[in-house]
Amino acid sequence: MNHSRMPLLDALKKHKQKESVSFHVPGHKNGLLASWMDLSLDITELNGLDDLHAPEECIKESEDLLSDLHHTVESKFLVNGSTVGNLTMILGTLSKDDTVFVQRNCHKSVLNALKMAQVFPVFLTPDFDEHTQTAAQVSKQTLMEAYKKYPESKAVIFTYPTYYGITGSFQELAAVAKSHDSLVLVDEAHGAHFGVIEKEMPMSALELGADIVVQSAHKMLPAMTMGAYLHIRSPRIDRTRIHFYLQALQSSSPSYPIMASLDYARSYFASYTEKDHLYAMSVKKRVAQLLQLKGFTCIFVDDPYKLLVRADGLTGYELQHLLEAADIYIELADPYQVLFIFPLLKAGEKLFEKKVVQQLSTLPFKARKTSPSFAKNLPSDHVSTLVLPYNEHSCSKREAVFLKEAAGQIAAEMIIPYPPGIPLVMEGERISNDHVERIDWLISQGARFHGGEKLNEKKLVVFRKEN
Ligand SMILES: Cc1ncc(COP(=O)(O)O)c(C=O)c1O
Predict the structure, then answer these.
(1) Atom of ligand 1 nearest to the CA of 187
(2) What is the mean pLDDT of residues 165-177?
């Protein structure tokens, strides 16, 4: 197939040339009423522009090109991010009361989907990675231990890579899951660019044993926000169920600009060369050298397009402010460091490099040499379950208690430090002393949370004990 073609984008451009008068949605009338934005490609399901929910023409061709590129059974465009991809993947493959293994450091959309599917989740605690001070991947031992306790597990849900770009030995884990006849479900939100250059990059889960994979194209590829892909790699997936959830969970008026950007991102990926990659890496090297000259510490991870940066004596949040004052906006900060995500630059695209070098030269920092203190506090149980199952959550009463009284009680909310959006406490899980200490410490470091509606009063919502 010819990957220089972008059928959806071309169809939209052709329609634009007609300079037609719009009597159809959207209300801005091809951008006429919103001249501050280029909305002229924000059209709808007119003749010639196909329909995401029953694709037969240009959208079908665009999705077929995506499928061809990744050697899948079928690949679908998503207009509500990996969030809707994870919901679809889980609801479309699992049934009520199924036992399912879940890597604990997963995105909240995975947990929401588990609750909606009313399954029996078994959480697998990942290893702690000292190098990056983050939760990494699940070990083979943990997965084997889980199979000893729950051999009936229907599926394993992996997050590959982590937000911080750690890959681990996914291929080995997928093989263990398959040998137990479990489905391998992968949230590859942060790895849509994996395999872009075969020799230099980690491989995609699609090539390493996954049955179904979700990728946020908008995170690493040049697609619009919310643009994502769902890939069905194996015939073990019931495509009819997946199709049902895709049309049930996504808008019946999907955004054409988002879909067109997915088409564009696929073509961009397909035409990305080793020369482009080497150029992008030379820019990253230059940036890292400049940062090191200023006294920052750079931490390299498995994903070559990511870089962690620390400043001794500063929290990641303080470092983030310092960078923003120099007009450098990074992806995320945590208590120890910040995360830089580098663009997939094509050779000759000099503007980014010029700008970043200029901005970095204005950075006033010279780091002090102090040793940072780290606290890991990952749960000590490698394999754990909820003490209150999902089906009892809605009929149980809730109350807010002070943090110091919360240990030993059952959480009635998820506590998710954001970024990176990985739940520290699950709803229905017993709150431990570790949890309480960790939350207290994160608050003191200025972390932000999703969930935790009373955290500003230093309270957690728990299920009330019945007398
Ligand atoms: C691991 C992971 N999965 C899924 C998502 C959701 O992706 P999206 O923003 O595309 O909905 C995120 C968002 O950051 C994520 O980090």
Answers:
(1) 3
(2) 96
